[in-house]
Amino acid sequence: MIPFALALAACGTGPDPVLPAGSAAYDAIPEGNVFAPRRVEIGPSDTLKVTVFREPDLSLEGATVDPDGNIQVPLLGTVDATGMTAAEFARDLERRFAARFLVDPSVTVSITQTSQRQVTVAGAVTQPGVYEIPGRISLIDAVSLARGPTNVAKYDQVVVFRRFNGERVGGIFDLGRINAGLAPDIEILGGDQVLVGTDGLKVAYRDALQAAPLLNIFTTFALVDRDGNQSAGEPAN
């Protein structure tokens, strides 16, 4: 019998261990640590609906914000929406219309589509990819968009990366504890990257089971963990 040893030390088993974990992970990810009201600003490539009450000729449907954060508004021309929420932009348009064209105008603005509402989910999930965020979602929701973790996922090694003030920050979260209600869920924002780590031992065991039927010379195999402990495997068919 020839042992089939699998050294896990050489396997990529999960996220970078230097990232903060546990309660420190929540401090490392700015904004949206828990579900709470947050500021959603208009950004380039967003699509807006602008309604001017009783002024259909001044209203806009499907107006796209240009790369500089501007939008073209009837009578007003180029208007900068950078750094404003939809409600703030509506008030700004009211002031502009009132200053020159309308008496006591009423304007509503809504963001109908945004390029900032995508999340990347990768690692040990069923369908890795880039997903549109349907409203406000949590970490659990984001993993669900990718059809959930695979059977080799390491639930306590789920990383969220986020851009903040021009820098990439990240933290390691325990999806198992979040699912059980033992740790708070976090809100996932547009542009975030979620990486579900893998359990190296499970990966090695799975790969061994898949390889053994093809390598009939192996009748048994063993799993070796990072501490050098060996566990007996099932006989190969």
From TrEMBL:
Residues 119-172 form the Soluble ligand binding domain. Residues 39-112 form the Polysaccharide export protein N-terminal domain. The keyword Signal applies. It comes from the Bacteria. Pfam families: Poly_export, SLBB. The keyword Signal applies. One of its GO terms (molecular function) is polysaccharide transmembrane transporter activity. InterPro entries: Poly_export, Poly_export_N, Soluble_ligand-bd. Signal peptide: none annotated. Keywords: Signal. This is GumB. It comes from Erythrobacter litoralis (strain HTCC2594).
